[in-house]
């Protein structure tokens, strides 16, 4: 098990700068909590399917140096067309690589470090008492060490036409702790695309708070395409108010070890959430998707559709949980996880759960694990399509169906499918 002592020493040696007293107090309490919890183990139910040895083999301490990254190295991650773009390298803002454009009135987009000076009220939304007394060690560690991140806020009634694009790029063998906040006022509309890329065996540890006020709609797409030696852990905590909607799509392609936790509280009547995604894995990769939708008010709706394509010796994990609290009558919640195994050594663990404490609800869950349809393969080959091309067509169709089903719009759908095609192109003769 990883010793927490190097992290304690690094924390004691960090410079506090001119941070507000409330933040310093939170950092100290969070570090204390991390030292009490330590790294999770397979004995804990939430982590029993995950091999953390890539992370716990030695301390991966926070980054501190500058980067010489050039714009061309990021170009493949950019969404086509005009966006409001913010770039962070090694967990810190790179203003020279960013391109915010002209932000409309009522829209705030900034690095977390800058927002601490100009809008500390927004930054405070990104913190939670559980980091001081809860059971999420990586969120506590993040609170102790984060240096930067992004803050995106849109005032009531504002509709942002262009998407906001956040690019995270990590280098080398250090850790990057990102603290982010997304806030949409009542009736606001916005789309945000986050892309994580990088080189080398670094560790990204991100925590994002999402707040959707009444009638707001937030569309949040996350693309994890880090280096195959990297580690990527991310926690999203959301609160969705009356008649508001939060849509998130997760595309996981990179990292040796990755995990995406999404905890969303449907706190207002008729709130809705959509959690969709695909994870495409090969080699020795291991990826976990762990959504938790907490229905706390009447008439809420949640849909979850997650698909995986797993090759070689890779391992995919789905831990989906939905809770329906007392009084949350009329809840309509459904989750589905489908896994496509391309190799006899590939593996998938899937654990969908429902906890229902209310009446008059419609809830369901399902999961499948299988390989390519031999009849479909035969059909394609019988029409002159070579075996490798036929397999690639079926895999692309399997992954693309969840992307197209998410109804993200033409540009975003095409952007995500390009990543799928790129993953298939890298397969070479192995497919």
Secondary structure: elements and pairs:
Blueprint: H1 5-12, H2 21-37, H3 53-56, E1 84-89, E2 92-93, E3 107-111, H4 112-118, H5 120-124, H6 130-133, H7 137-145, E4 150-154, E5 164-170, E6 175-184, E7 189-198, E8 203-212, E9 217-224, E10 231-240, E11 245-252, E12 257-266, E13 272-281, E14 286-295, E15 301-310, E16 315-324, E17 332-341, E18 347-356, E19 362-370, H8 374-382, H9 387-405, H10 410-426
Highlighted features:
431 residues, alpha/beta, ten-stranded mixed beta sheet, nine-stranded mixed beta sheet, 10 helices
Strands, total number: 19
* Class by alpha and beta content: alpha/beta
Q: What is the domain total for the residues? A: 2
Summarize the amount of helix as a percent range.
Answer: 10-25%
Largest sheet: 10 strands, mixed
- Uncertain runs are none
Order of helices and strands: HHHEEEHHHHEEEEEEEEEEEEEEEEHHH
Radius of gyration: 21 Å
* Cross-sheet strand order for the largest sheet: 2-1-5-7-9-11-13-15-17-19
Instruction: Work out the helix count.
Output: 10
Strand content: 35-45%
Provide the residue-averaged pLDDT.
92
Query: Which overall shape is indicated by the principal axes computed on the Cα atoms?
Result: globular
Our measurement of the CA-to-CA distance between the termini, rounded to an integer number of angstroms, reads 36 Å
